[in-house]
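Hey, I'm writing a tutorial for new members on how sequence and structure tokens pair up, and I'd like a real worked example in the thread rather than a made-up one. If someone can provide the structure for the chain below, I'll link this post from the tutorial.
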Amino acid sequence: MKALVYTAEKEVRFQDEPTPEPGPGEVVVSIDAVGICGSDMHAYLGHDARRVPPLILGHEAVGRVVDGSAAGDLVVINPLITCGHCDECLGGRANLCKQRDIIGMYRPGALAERVAVPAGNLIEIPEDMDPAHAALTEPAATALHAVNLAAKAAYRTVSESRALVIGGGSVGLFAAMALKDQGASDIQLAETNPLRRRTVESTGVCRVIDPLSEPARESSFEIVVDAVGGKLSRQAAIAAVRPGGIVMHIGLLDNDDGIDIRRMTLQEITLIGTYTYTPVDLRATVKKLYSGAFGDLGWVEQRSLSDGAGAFDDLLHGRTGAPKIVLCP
């Protein structure tokens, strides 16, 4: 089969790879569409020691089951592989399983014509759902999970909260959409890339600002979502949140400091780290994407898997305004 393989720092190659064989309890999925995630870019830059080349990256995938009892079904892949029997898994928080794995990290991912995954990691989707839209389930579920956690922790309801999202990639944009879906009417999104700002503005979901020329007002937002996760974005998030407010930390750009712990303590600011999603989040997200709750999704850019190297390079150099590029084998 053909696959896009991460072979060295800032290098991915479209090449022949062995067709995967399913292990015990696994099935093979023929990929229709797969998104490039920020974590894929992190690996591409050589910043993720867990993803060692040569490796097929990619975990935001949709396709058809090739074998087994579900053969022929159109499915979204839950890329998180968990033990299924620890307290976290049994308690409905499988995303926190200590034995969790994810495709495209220690095992081959979905930037390929086919991938092998556990049969229990398949989520069936409507036959008429656009595969490029279905491939957005993973980043959208990440955002939905974060907003749901914020709603549980917040002193005021989401509909009564002013919200700031830092980062206009797919997770940041979906966070703004999830906030709006839950009733928030005053949402700002900060993004430094002018092409991406224009794309986010075209959705009409929120007010878009350039934080380099128009920093968010300090102490102004009940909910702040950091979808970047770098030192500067953490500093901006802590500065922007109101006393008693919530900061949701999703991004994993770096592990440097950037947290004003004195302000957080004196003003009772809650900082919540949020990682991926639960299987229920994924199912709920499929329904929202299919129903149009997150808009028409016309901002997705589709390319051929064979053009994957060019897509990675364009993302690296900020030459695309698309919050998400989806590759189709």
